[in-house]
Amino acid sequence: MLGIDTNILLRIFLTDLSEGDHTPDQFALVRDAVVGSREPFFVNHVVVVETIWVLRQKLKYSKVIIAGVMTRLLHMSNVMVQDAAIVEASLSGFIAYPGDFSDHLIGEINKRNGCRTTLTFDRAASKSPNFSELQR
């Protein structure tokens, strides 16, 4: 198994979505090394968060489009996503409630590890059932 960094993961999807300003050589390298490979690849939470940040902040993709891209990632036969069920639940929260994907991932990880809530000062995140806004 090999790990995939954010810049590789982005090129998997940007090639497919015909977006971005990367050299054709990079797309070809990714296509040959990853997309057509039978070797399994691992994508950790940090790479998922960074990828979603780039898609949302830099490329201005909607939450729905991002969820579609990430759902495709979760169903790729040669890719293992760290705690895929947690990522999937976090995507649902990301679509349903305000806040960044990273907020929803934090809340979901904490919930799955026995936390009844996650305290925050972030008003957007506090709209999710996994968070409670800390107030006076």
From TrEMBL:
Pfam families per UniProt: PIN
Residue span, PIN domain: 4-125
Name of this chain's protein: Type II toxin-antitoxin system VapC family toxin
